[in-house]
Amino acid sequence: MSTEQYDTIVIGAGVSGLSCAAHLAKAGKKVLVIEQNKRPGGYCCSYTRKGLIFDPGAHWIIDGEGFNSLLKEFDVDPIDFIQLNAVYRILGPTKYVDVLMSKKEHFRRTIIRSFPTIKNSALVELIDLALLLEEEMNSMPTDSLELQSLFGKMSMGVQMFSKAKNMMKYSRMNLKEFLEKMFPGEEHRDLRAALHIVPGEDAKAIALLIFIALGMSGSAYGPKGGAQQIPDALAKAVKKNKGKIVYSKKVTKIKIEDKKAVGVILDDKKEYSAKTVVASIDAKQLYYQLLEPELLPNKLKKKLEESPIAGSWFSVSIVTDLNPADYDFDGTDVLFLNTNDIIEAGIPNNPEKNAFVAKFNTLHDDSFRTAKAKENYHGIHILAPATFDYNNCWRAGAKLNRGKRYEKYKKDYANILIRRLEKRLPGLSRHIIHMDVSTPLTYHRYTLNHQGSGLGWQDMMMWKQKISFAKGLYHSGMWSFPGPMVEPSIESGKNAALLVLKQLK
Questions:
Q1: Which of the listed residues 219, 247, 264 is the one where a domain comes to its end?
Q2: In 3-state terms, what secondary structure has residue 46?
Q3: pLDDT in tens, the chain (505 residues)
Q4: Rg of the Cα atoms in the chain
Q5: Are 385 and 419 in the same domain?
Q6: Where are the alpha helices (DSSP H) in 423-470?
Q7: Which domain holds residue 184?
Q8: 373 and 269 fall within a common domain
Q9: What pTM was estimated for this model as a whole?
Q10: 112: number of Cβ within 10 Å
Q11: What's the total number of domains in the chain?
Q12: Pairing verdict, β 271-279 and 81-83
């Protein structure tokens, strides 16, 4: 075993893992982060093509000022954010509407402009509900239950029950049924489709209400220069506080001795020992690959098998010399719908019909151009719902052979989406300078998330961050903490650090 001994080893340099490591290093603990990629970030990252920056996953956060306050605690310089006026626009078969924006009146006006027959009372009711849920959310205690005493848990339970009645009500209510009740009639079918922001027939009303509330509070900030700025800043925080990060190394086993986590083994057979281990990774990888199967309690195995996992994406990164601004696009993400059948639009692996998102980063801000970018080049990033196993794993087969069949098939698939976008951007296919295509296999390869899942568990729920059957082993990230966004992941990492410090103390 390596002579290097650590207080904590963190597996994974995503946002959560870096947050955990930075908090521990700040507390004076000897910390090692091990990351399989060449750089940090996970799904919160950026890459450059022809001098243009693309964000494949998370690309805005709720509280830019709060993030910079955290960096200040770690003695790291702040990063620059742009407050977004509108971050999500629905472009349906006939109309569009801004779904998430910075001001309540803007939201109301855009809907009335596109849907003049809508009753103002129904719109006011929707807005009031969103604000009520935001008020309830802000009143909720944020401390981890695992860090609470028995009395604290009971007190928190009483608070949640008394202050979160509407949150509980609308977390159970079906979104499709909610919209049909709020905006009935055939004349509002386009509106219902536009507001059904979460695909699938099982989506809940709370998803829409929270999105609207966050937008109306002006809580949407994009990092200048792309999402990579966020994990890069957190990595600086780890190093600034004397933590260590090792890249391009993969953990293949967590060592458990006498029901205690004692270290890890890497793919190069090197071993590191530690008093505690934090896995900031996919839950399936943690429990099925890094731990011996006999360690898992039957109850946990059953939960892992029965909990559905969110799907992945198919994406196309395009560098073009055609300017989307000439066709009335700006930096706002646009969800394209060619049907107002919201169930059909949410079905994955159907490029002719399913909804897809187009992001226009170079219109969003000039910081998405590097010095190498040509002035007339623009970036467009398309994302559509897709599954890992579609058509025999995208014709790669069970062995995931990404050969000529795979390359041709994904390119043909991409061209279908491009032709759909071309209805709004005429001539796009003739103006493509460079194109990268990613399938769920690509996302799996880079993140190790099970089947390339971009959101973790399909149903957002809290999993125990403290692993009960192995002392000193903890879990952090979106697979253990509700919400795939940046802030919940940072909070999850902090909670894991506090649990570690409690044990080390």
A1: 219
A2: coil
A3: 455 799 999 999 999 999 999 999 999 999 999 999 999 999 999 999 999 999 988 888 888 999 999 999 999 999 999 887 777 787 777 656 655 555 677 778 878 877 888 888 898 899 999 888 888 877 766 567 677 666 665 565 555 556 678 888 888 899 999 999 999 988 888 788 778 877 667 788 988 888 788 777 766 889 999 999 999 999 999 999 999 999 999 999 999 999 999 999 999 999 999 999 999 999 999 999 999 989 999 999 999 999 988 889 999 999 999 999 999 898 888 888 877 777 788 889 999 988 899 999 898 888 999 999 999 999 999 999 999 999 999 999 999 999 999 999 999 999 999 999 999 999 999 999 999 999 999 999 999 999 999 888 877 667 889 999 999 999 999 898 876 678 889 999 999 999 999 999 8
A4: 23
A5: yes
A6: 440-447
A7: 98-219
A8: no
A9: 0.90
A10: 14
A11: 3
A12: unpaired
Say if 80 falls within a structural domain: no
Q: Are residues 235 and 299 in the same domain?
A: yes
Name the 3-class secondary structure at 478. coil
Same domain, 199 and 108: yes
Element (H, E) at 384: strand 378-386
Residue 69 lies in a domain: no
In a domain, 197, yes or no: yes
Domain contains 82: no
For every residue of 246-258, DSSP letters joined together read: E-S--EEEEEEET
Token couple for 318: 């395009």
Distances (CA, A) of 286 to 59, 216, 252, 448, 465: 26, 38, 10, 11, 12
Q: Which of 219, 252, 277 is the last residue of a domain?
A: 219
Q: Are residues 237 and 340 in the same domain?
A: no
